[in-house]
Amino acid sequence: MKILTYLIAVAALLAGAYFSYDVKTKFTELKANRLELAETNTRREGTIEKTKKKAGDTEELRDAAQVALSETEGELRTKEENTDVALRDKATLDEKIAGQVEEIKDVQTLIDTVENAFSALDVDMEDIPNLIKGLEEDVATNTTKSEELTTLVSSVDKRIETTSEALSSQRKRISDRAERIKANTLEGHVTAIDHNWGIAIVNVPSKMPLDISSKLLVRRGSSYIGRLKISSIEGSRVITDIDYKSMSSGIVLQQGDTVFLETLVIK
């Protein structure tokens, strides 16, 4: 009987020792897991801050692009005004040339009239050569002026043509740049999510300038909550990998979240 009691006591001591060792082992594992979770949260908070800063830099770049577009449009207006001035100058020169042509015709008519009159009248012929010479000199002077005005008009025409070509090219560059800037402001939306595979499907506008290297930021309301990496593009349907490390603490990606380009495409 004493032996049985002794065996039971020994068994109880062994069971207690095993239970204490098991509890100690689980406590040690739990403590290690908590430390690892704390380190993960610290790294995640650092990544979130970098993402928010990157988003702020993106908005500053977008604003700078809008300012550059406004400046370019101002230059275009100045060139258009210069073209209007050149066109007015050309019109003035055309009027002067027309006047000179009429003067030449009048002088030539006068010469013909004088010659006809002198041939019918009894006039001292010694005076006729000097008179005719003076009239011919007037015709030559007016002809020279007319040629100079014609050359000047030709120069103005070339300048107008050059300016018009420059304006046309400038308008196209402004139009193309405006389209690119406008495309950078386009936004898409998350339409489907599979958290088991870490995949999200995003529907984007057809004009959004995407390629496989583009990065997407996710916004909910006015807050940036994370980043998506593009794995494939199928028209307006984009397959992305969820960057869980960039997600804000406690936030889970949802359908309807807004998506836009992390880096603007401005060239």
Structural topology:
Layout: H1 2-120, H2 127-184, E1 188-194, E2 199-203, E3 215-220, E4 223-234, E5 237-243, E6 258-261
Helix pairs in contact: 1-2
Q: Give the integer mean of the pLDDT values.
A: 76
Rg over C-alpha atoms, rounded to the nearest angstrom: 45 Å
Please work out how many helical segments DSSP would assign: 2
Strand fraction equals: 15-25%
List segments where confidence is low: pLDDT < 50 over at least 5 consecutive residues: none
Net shape = rod-shaped
Q: Give the strand order of the largest sheet, numbering strands 1, 2, ... along the chain.
A: 1-2-5-4-3-6
Provide the helix percentage: 55-70%
Order of helices and strands: HHEEEEEE
What is the first-to-last residue Cα distance? 97 Å
The largest pleated sheet is described as: 6 strands, antiparallel, barrel
- How many domains would you count in the coordinates? 2
> Which class best fits the helix and strand makeup?
alpha+beta
Compute the number of strand runs.
6
